[in-house]
Fold Peptidoglycan bridge formation protein FemAB.
Amino acid sequence: MSLTLRTISREQHLAYIGSLPSASHMQVPAWGDVKAEWRSESLGWFDRSGQLVGVGLVLYRQLPRLKRYLAYLPEGPVINWYAPNLEEWLRPMLAHLKQQGAFSVKMGPPVVIRRWSAAAIKAGIQNPEVKRLRDVEATVIEPRAFEVSDRLRRMGWQQGEDEGAGFGDVQPRYVFQIPLRGRSLDEVHKGFNQLWRRNIKKAEKAGVEVVRGGYDDLPVWQQLYEVTAERDKFRPRPLMYFERMWRTLNDEDPDRMRLYFAVHEGEAVAAATMLIVGGHVWYSYGASANHKREVRPSNAMQWRMLQDAYALQADVYDLRGIGDSLEDTDHLFGLIQFKVGTGGEAAEYLGEWDFPLNKLLHKALDIYMSRR
């Protein structure tokens, strides 16, 4: 297979994504508009007959005072990762990015290497000898993913760190997903643990109502989100980020992004954003008040979002990132415990990979990031 690569239009890019069962929300053209501090470009791979067979959204971040860029393909590119000629896909991409002034390339192959069932994770949590998710025997292993990893290393790609790289835009290596394809909604509900089912019922009895919001409701979202940021000690994104996210994603597809609120006695006490690309639905950002937690608004909201994802005939509802620590002293342990209660499964991706086009600048960036 002889492949050529060139810049393509947003329309070509979007049409190709639309022809697939799903792709990452970070690989749709509008994601480049969401990340306004980066310059974006749509790349297309063409076969010998001129057919478009793969796409990639590249984000370029300029180095201070230099016309050199970090080129980043979050959760991409969207290509055939299991192709035996993977080098033929990636070599022209590197040549093109170097020509564009990139000194280093970072990408996140959307390739799952292992999966763990909720039961396996629960058993790991209860075992005092198990410290991390990777200490638990995987329920499913994808052998082809190891082949992809080997090919990348042979080409000179370097495995990125699990966190802290890429100007703070590094994507989670471990995520938690609820498979929906081939399951009834009743089966999904029965997959919840007893505490989840009890909390959903408790919210219903307390009169928690889950409603969808719109662009004009984003300030209410922001208030809850900033309360959450203060409580969980992270730096919140500004309101204008979510306003831009809503406008750009929903201009591209009117149902790309949704906003949900859990309301109790007329007050919004929890909120979440949802993203949709084909058969993949993501719980993207979540927020909750410090009070009224006893009426379990977050459980009610997740159940409503899951039902809506099911109504969209989604294949998977993705709860996004988790840490891999199974120790209750870890600050992310509560997150994995909450998500495991849904009865879904943890998935480990190949992680992010770097290719230094200019080793000196790449090393300088590494040193700069490690000192931040």
